[in-house]
């Protein structure tokens, strides 16, 4: 599939460039023509020939098909589905080793540093102020009589 996508992208770009160049040439030749049929003050642009339009549409279709074929797999729309699949997959080997012959592991969840799993367990997130916990401490302080 990647080879077909690359071929379609290349062909689409080449033919799209040719169609744009042909349109420019057609416009410049007809705009400077001494045989103008329009007598109005508003300049009229002649229509683009059918073969250039067909080339333009075919190249756009080939380019769009190549882009769709070369795009990576889509992620689920629901964030919880995507993050749970990342959490289940865990850390994986990247196939690289350090100088000390220690295997380099890739991160499974790119948002693991936020500590979202600990929020579900009631521990709070690292690096964020825990407003609910501070409010609980304040209520406990008030109930104890407000003494330090």
TrEMBL record:
GO terms for cellular component: EMC complex. Its main location: membrane. It comes from the Eukaryota. Keywords: Membrane, Transmembrane, Transmembrane helix. One of its GO terms (biological process) is protein folding in endoplasmic reticulum. This is Magnesium transporter. The keyword Lyase does not apply. Belongs to the membrane magnesium transporter (TC 1.A.67) family. It holds the Pfam family MMgT.
